[in-house]
Amino acid sequence: MKGLEVLKDLVTSFLKGGESYERSVEEFLRELQKTLIRADVNLKIVSELTSRIREEAFKSKPPPGVLRREWFIKIVYEKLIELFGSEGKASITLSKQPYIMMLVGIQGSGKTTTAGKLALLYKKLGYRPGLITTDTYRPAAYEQLMQIANSIGVPFFGDKNSSDPVSIAVQGVGKLVNEFKCNVIIIDTAGRHGYGSEEKLLDEMRQLAEAIRPDEILLVIDAYIGQKAYDLAKRFHEYTPIGSIIVTKLDGTAKGGGALSAIAATNARIKFVCDGERLEDIEAFDPKKFVSRLLGLGDLESLLKKFEALEEREEIERRLERIMASGKISLRDIYLQLQSIKKLGPLKKVFELIPGLSFMASVSDDMIKSSEDKIDKWISIINSMTYEELDDPSIIDRRRMRRIALGSGTSVSDVEELLRYYEQLRRLMKDLRRKKGLLSKFGVKDLGA
Ligand SMILES: Nc1nc2c(ncn2[C@@H]2O[C@H](COP(=O)(O)OP(=O)(O)O)[C@@H](O)[C@H]2O)c(=O)[nH]1
Ligand SMILES: [Mg+2]
After folding, report:
1. Ligand 1 atom 14: the closest Cα is on which residue?
2. Ligand 2 centroid vs 119 CA: distance in angstroms?
3. 108 lines ligand 1 (CB under 6 A)
4. How far is the CA of 109 from the centre of ligand 1 (A)?
5. Would you give per-residue pLDDT tens digits along the chain (449 residues)?
6. What domains are there in the chain, each with its CATH number?
7. CA-CA distance, 110 to 274, in Å (whole number)?
8. Which ligand is nearest to the CA of 192?
9. Is 251 in the pocket of ligand 1 (CB under 6 A)?
10. Atom 4 (ligand 1): residue with closest C-alpha?
11. Burial class of residue 361 in the structure, from the number of CB atoms within 10 Å of its CB (0-12 exposed, 13-18 middle, 19+ buried)
12. Considering the entire predicted model, what is its pTM?
């Protein structure tokens, strides 16, 4: 993104080193502040962010195998993600069909273009989108959206002779759904002229929304307004629970960072971001991916992988600790374990990551392969269990086993095998706990392998 791309060089030169760690950190933070302020991020937000980074950088210690400088970048990475949104990648799957979206926003913010982008995006995802224009103020609006619709081959509805947006929308939805069998309807609206007319914009939106009852209202915000996006996003967020935000023109301004962080601070949901005039230039907003790109971690792939592996490892260790402490393991623990193994990749790698299990990495490859095949089976078996069964597997009799096998597309003996595995682990945990108790009496802390 324009304006923030200098962060990449900052990261690279920081990692290369040169000056003392402390001086490099201060230098880095100073440059980070300058860059963010130039990108129109709110001053207070910037100073809070940098002091949180500084505090954590000097407080926390990198785990073994991670350099201090790498660890610092990880902290920067995490704090920046919080700055741009803590919710993770926006989900763009549609909860029902037909799904009606309504785009609102100031004139020129990019509504019509974005309507086309959304139609193309959902078309690529296998939906049948249809476009409606209700902009009766500008004569060219009709042609503009029609041309876009034609260029991507999706049905279009509008009425040049009407001046009633509500009736156009109602008619259009009926026609596109019933005649053209569209299952995503995207309604473009006229909007108001100029920022500062938010009140009027929201009023107009309210009238249309009451008549059309959209499933989602998307507010289009031009990144040019920078941190001024805060007020608009806040009011919008307070007004509608079905609202989400699209930020456009991130390619054209250095103020995009300000707009995104300001919106994130209102807790409104940023769903899409656009960075170009072409209809392909849209994507679901993913703060993690966004920040990785800003910091150039896409190039520093291996560093990012290292962080991810660390997070997984911490998570697995926390879980193991909990299990060891309670001596109890549940099917839910096993489920999480299977899931994290899947995320982490080959079992061998997983074993290598966990100190207590590193000896397992030397188990023969054949054995590991067959366990990997099992993972998917077991995940679907656990998915087919009821909560009651998960909490107390002892109630799973033959009849339940048959049901679970059927539901998960596996066999009764697969279900039995998983339950046996669970039983073994449960005993092992109990055993370990007893031994641990004994060992600690003799002053031995670590069971280590
Ligand atoms: N560079 C750039 N231009 C955009 C983007 N989105 C829209 N535009 C341009 O912004 C102008 C206004 O867009 P339009 O869709 O007509 O805005 P509307 O008045 O809200 O419907 C047009 O020239 C678009 O090509 C974007 O993400 N990047
Ligand atoms: Mg328009």
Report:
1. 110
2. 15
3. yes
4. 6
5. 777 888 888 998 898 888 899 999 999 999 999 999 999 999 999 999 999 999 999 898 887 777 889 889 989 999 999 999 877 788 898 989 999 999 999 989 999 999 999 999 999 999 999 999 999 888 899 999 999 999 999 999 999 999 899 999 999 999 999 999 999 999 999 887 666 667 777 887 888 899 899 999 999 999 999 999 999 999 999 888 889 999 999 998 889 999 999 999 998 999 999 999 999 999 999 998 889 888 887 766 777 777 777 777 677 667 667 766 776 777 887 787 777 666 655 555 555 555 445 545 555 566 566 667 778 888 899 999 998 898 889 999 999 999 999 999 999 999 999 999 888 878 877 776 676 665 555 544 444 33
6. 6-84 (1.20.120.140), 99-286 (3.40.50.300), 301-441 (1.10.260.30)
7. 9
8. 1
9. yes
10. 277
11. middle
12. 0.73
Distances (CA, A) of 181 to 115, 130, 155, 191, 213: 18, 9, 10, 28, 19
